[in-house]
Amino acid sequence: MSENKPRVLLFEEAVGLTKFELGGKGYGLVEMTRIGLPVPPGLNIPTYVCREYYSTGRFPDGLIDEVREKLRIIEERVGRRFGSTERPLLVSVRSGAPYSMPGMMDTILNLGLNDEIVKSLAGETRDERFAYDSYRRLIQMFGKIVLGVKDEKFDEIIEEHKKKLGIKHDIEISAEEWKKIIEEFKELIKKEAGIEFPQDPWEQLRMAIEAVFKSWNNPRAIVYRKTYNIPEDLYTAVNIQMMVFGNLGFDSGTGVGFTRNPSTGEKKLYGEYLLNAQGEDVVAGIRTPKPLEELKNELTQVYEELLRVSEILEKHFREMQDFEFTIQEGKLYLLQTRNGKRTAQAAVKIAVEMVNEGLITKEEAISRIEPNDLNQLLHPRIDPNVKSKPIAKGLNASPGAATGKVVFTADEAAELGSKGEKVILVRPETKPEDIHGMIAAQGILTSRGGMTSHAAVVARGMGKPAVVGAEMIKIDLDKEVFTVNGAQVRKFDVITIDGTTGHVYLGAVPTIEPELSGELQILLSWADEIRRLGVRANAETPAAARKAREFGAEGIGLARTERMFNAPDRLPIVYELIFAETEEERWNAVKKLLPMFKSDFKQIFREMAGYPVTVRLLDLPLHEFLPRMEELIQEVTELRIKAKSRKKGYKKAMKLLQEKERILKRALQLAEHNPMIGHRGCRLGITYPEIYRIQTRAILEAALELKKESVEVHPEIMIPLVSEANELSILRKIVEDEAEKVFQEYGDRIEFHVGTMIETPRAALTASEIAKVADFFSFGTNDLTQMTFGFSRDDAEAKFMAQYLGKKILSHNPFEKIDEKGVGRLVKIGTKEGKQANPKLIVGICGEHGGDPDSIRLFEEAGLDYVSCSPYRVPIARLAAAQARLKELAVKITV
Amino acid sequence: MSENKPRVLLFEEAVGLTKFELGGKGYGLVEMTRIGLPVPPGLNIPTYVCREYYSTGRFPDGLIDEVREKLRIIEERVGRRFGSTERPLLVSVRSGAPYSMPGMMDTILNLGLNDEIVKSLAGETRDERFAYDSYRRLIQMFGKIVLGVKDEKFDEIIEEHKKKLGIKHDIEISAEEWKKIIEEFKELIKKEAGIEFPQDPWEQLRMAIEAVFKSWNNPRAIVYRKTYNIPEDLYTAVNIQMMVFGNLGFDSGTGVGFTRNPSTGEKKLYGEYLLNAQGEDVVAGIRTPKPLEELKNELTQVYEELLRVSEILEKHFREMQDFEFTIQEGKLYLLQTRNGKRTAQAAVKIAVEMVNEGLITKEEAISRIEPNDLNQLLHPRIDPNVKSKPIAKGLNASPGAATGKVVFTADEAAELGSKGEKVILVRPETKPEDIHGMIAAQGILTSRGGMTSHAAVVARGMGKPAVVGAEMIKIDLDKEVFTVNGAQVRKFDVITIDGTTGHVYLGAVPTIEPELSGELQILLSWADEIRRLGVRANAETPAAARKAREFGAEGIGLARTERMFNAPDRLPIVYELIFAETEEERWNAVKKLLPMFKSDFKQIFREMAGYPVTVRLLDLPLHEFLPRMEELIQEVTELRIKAKSRKKGYKKAMKLLQEKERILKRALQLAEHNPMIGHRGCRLGITYPEIYRIQTRAILEAALELKKESVEVHPEIMIPLVSEANELSILRKIVEDEAEKVFQEYGDRIEFHVGTMIETPRAALTASEIAKVADFFSFGTNDLTQMTFGFSRDDAEAKFMAQYLGKKILSHNPFEKIDEKGVGRLVKIGTKEGKQANPKLIVGICGEHGGDPDSIRLFEEAGLDYVSCSPYRVPIARLAAAQARLKELAVKITV
Q1: What is the pTM of this model?
Q2: For a disulfide at B723, which of B122, B152, B175, B762, Cβ 3.0-4.6 Å?
Q3: How far apart are CA A305 and CA A290, in angstroms?
Q4: Is the pLDDT at A14 greater than 60, yes or no?
Q5: Complex ipTM value
């Protein structure tokens, strides 16, 4: 018996109950009632009654009597009576769960009408057509929602009548015609549901309440709860409320209001209304609602009442409200209020202004913005006002929208790009040697590869839009055309890609440029005051470094160096390195790269003057710089046949064959079964120390030369893929020896740090040993996730991740949001034991999770010192870090 | 001042000091002195004096005076005087660290001679030649060891003299000639070392003692200590002992004895001797020593004395002793004793017999056998008495020796094998479709691949000798020949491979068959009484299962099922499965495999009647069953050109092309970047549940049908590669649903368990969740090692493991001996948290570490329930488990 809590409450009696008891809608109605806003009187049956319904398996005994008792009070107050043919009281019945939930029963209006009472309503309102329209609406809604008769069947009947009469709109149907339709509706219900439409208003009410209870467990609602992790045991409340009518003439009406503009955030009442209409009519879309401002002229007093209401609502709820209202014969009634949905731009503006207005604190302002929503503000995006149908969808690998001509080779992209043309580079997948084309292109589209494919990683690093793994696109490189669903897209055709959604559009779809508004800057400055975590950027080009500074990064947490080997002018030297057989030959090869490397580093250091720059030494296996094995084998096979043929061109083929065979042979020697866990990272540094030596030299020579120009440089040298402390101590020695040589040669010194990525499980588990030879740790959570799960990311995302997420084996993709139980546990172990062993150790994270708000929460909890993410996520990370800090402080206070 | 401990002790004074103070040699001498054996009198300078030498950085003050004082006592006793020209006392100086250590100073003999004293010795012995030979030996040893003059330079001088005289052996050199040589030796020392050979015997002694101290830190000794983890701070003792001479005529001599036969273990005095010789002469190998039995005839009394000594030594040391002796003019002296090295066979026999003799306990017997040494007894091996030179060396992938004719295809191996011919299958690497050839062959030799390559894993599973990754071998499959170092080996040439060492021999090298001796069986039965860990076998054929039972396995801990898909008659059906596009098509394909699977399982279950059999459901990615991508591309490219050519056979080529293109297309679809961490294991089970359903069905139908024949079956179904509890709960449900169907159809039930491999770091870290849906865990430490380190085993062993071990980055290969800090920590976490969450959970390990004694120690400590290893390692594991238990109990008692 629900611990003797009242099962039915008047709105004014329910003050003090929580949203979990009253449901969202009920809570809003009760609060508005409490502060004296004009709410039609009504009752709330709290969620615990619904729980009782499920636990006992039957409709609660005596519940209807309790409803009757409370309704009597309302009847007295308004001078109407439910079920009476004189001055009948009509009610609506609406569900209201703690969280709004599509799929649950919504609303039944006009409850309390029957064949007799409808006549009384017609008499009282002197509007027969209104009365019978109201009655047929009740029968239709009741039939559909309570009795499960399909809506189309009702519509068919109405359509037949309109056809017969030769009319187009419902509004033209007369009272007499509605009476005929009502009879047919009742027949339909009898036939389909096997029972008569109940004439007893109390029976109507009982059945409607039970329908609300039942709707908690309808399949769509269950799926929705699973999807959004809403607990199964919250249940729904029921709201029973006196009907008011917006369709009683042109001093009546209905509408929705926002206390501020939900699109721009402007502090001004915003909304739409229709006179002589019910809420349904607005939804039906036959008549176009008018902007709320016009109401000022049509019903001035009501408009001013709305302004007053809007102010009261905001003061009370301390949040922008989205409310529904009805005007009945000049009188305003509020039917619902809730926190209003808004664009990211509006959210930021509103939060900042509310702080300035003294409505909320800075901490509240920060807590109210969903960090990921800022994404909308930080990249060019498809204009949301333009409706376009995408021709394909791939993975949303790097956010932002871009438009350009389709080209199929990196060379062509580079050529056109240098002429100022905008191009989209379309490839099955990209390779290191395509970099120049990727730089020149506006965006990248590939038909293969996952979220860490070359195209995806490089594009994200560049902040360039990319859609990858769009498998429905079939690319024919020879013919320079791609087909998708039968359509052909040729070279130089214009397409638009949206890396935020993964959509691909034909033609130029209008886009909007990002702007870092003044309000956002203020909000982020508050975030900076609150957060404990530092925020750095992953950046490896001067442009990216500049962007990162613009967005507030406090240094670079990851500067990859692969790009420095990939440039077309350097690949021949890298080949020399790959084919070298002795240490001396290798040293001679890499020495040639020194001036280029040094120039690269200088550019980045200049952009980040005064801030630390963490340079990761070469991580990729050497074979990544060679052509793909499949291509090589095909080429060599073809050349062999041609060379043997003794036909035209065979001598040339023989010569080329020799060269290709040499490359193939080396590629076969270097080939690996599982390159992700193969001969890369520090393992390269140990087997080919020359590479790390030259990189160290380039970094420190660059730093020393800038020092002469009074540019402040804080280089941090980061060794990748360490799994054992000895690896780091050997490489640290190599780095320090080379540094000493450089210092001797330059007659000057500079402070620098040496640290390591923590990206293998063993590195985290042996952090106490590694910390003794490291100045800093940086968690590489991409690789750490791969190894902790044993998931090769590219393979997992192509082969089984979709099924894993669909079947809820994983609640989220662990490459996007950090896996707390496995990877997160290792991050905590590594941080704690590392800092214990070396109290000066600085600990950061530079995997993609560094820009994910949920993951940042864990990094705050684990006690990291900073996160590092792509430049375009820096503002998101700043905000998320502040939120994480606030939550962490709350936890500490609670504990 | 070393806490006032005496710095020089007479042997008889040193009783009670430990081996760590006296060194191994000193301890033996002191003990022998104590029990009254004839030891030449002497002094020991304990290790702590050497420690003092290093801590103060100089030769200890007054040490020589203390030596002098103690030596006086010996002088009195023997009636000789050190440094006197009358009845001079000569001494030897020898180092003696707690562990014998190559690279340290060994011995200087004849100390105390100089230009004058040598004359006295000549007079006293009436053997001038002996005296001057002794003197030149002193100068030579002193020059070499104390003064660092190269030995060759001394030898050159002797050789010149012999050449000049036209003689061959040192023994022919006269006293006069030695005198000349001595003069030249002294010149040499002056020239090379810059000082005169010291004529003062006390100076000789001081310098010799210091040389012993210094030798503790010579580079070879340091490397040796690092290699064998011998602590740096043990230091060495010095032994100074009166010289006795075995070269004073034919009633003198020298020899070594073993208290039992070190080769067979037979309880009988064994050894060798030479009359009229010094120890050096035995080593020089010019004269061949005689078996000790012959001494019975030559010097009966001494022989009997030796028998008595042998018995006393064993009683005292309770171990088989290896001792050195010298006979001087009919009197026996013992110069050294230590525990004797022995073959595995001897070790077992001796240990068991000593228990029976009441000398030692069963626990001691068990502790004394190095489990890995049993390997020698469990596989056929190259006869150690035959000297053969290998033509190549590869990885010792699967132990044992095998001889046969070389064949280059699996088909040919199978064909010849079926005719009873012995063949060795030689391939660049093996593939699943080669299985029939591998079964038929005596052994496998590959030129590519590491310790977990297909060839290695399958061969170990079969207990079949294999040498893999012998890269020096160049195989030409077309010509059916392989070349190595210029030599050619053709098809049908006979070779012998030794999988225990990795050697390959030309021709048939004699081998010895293994025998599980009665003593070994007794020893293992004692081990079984002591051990707590269960021992199971990894076996997937009836033959392997039978072998496992023979060797004492208590069930199968890992029956892989890949073999059941690989057989040539099944591959066409597996292709159907691979090319199927719907669940129904896949089910129709796998259904055809049911009778074959069932028959496989029945055979294994029958062999293991009464014991658990853990069947691992399919783990390999599907593309492993397709041909290699490289081959496919080459074939398709060739066929395309041929099909286009319109030349002879182009129509056939077109048809074949179609089929090959179909396969290539599918292979490309299924191809993975990192298959080791890709779409395999339970991920296959989730995406293609049909496969696990049919396997479950086959297991349970087989079990139920055997139940009718009263064969007791305990099936355990094991899901591989789980990293998240949900994976296991979904698959457990699929398995249980299928089981229920089978039980319904058969109208009978059988108990079975469902469990999982723990082989991803995340599985270990989330063991508390996984344990709730598992009946058992089995650590797959091969994969767990790969993922914890981020080492792809094949790639690591081919590319950088050798350097990592060489540079001591890793102290051992973690795929052979478990990595305690990383992988071991995960094993402990997984076991502890798994058992806490589910107290009924059974935890085992089935990676290769299951047969490694050091790893077994960790598994005992971690509280596992059993280990599972290859059948041939079962006896090793039984012994190692007993030793681990004894150590664990010792730790518990200490703690």
Answers
A1: 0.83
A2: B762
A3: 18
A4: yes
A5: 0.82
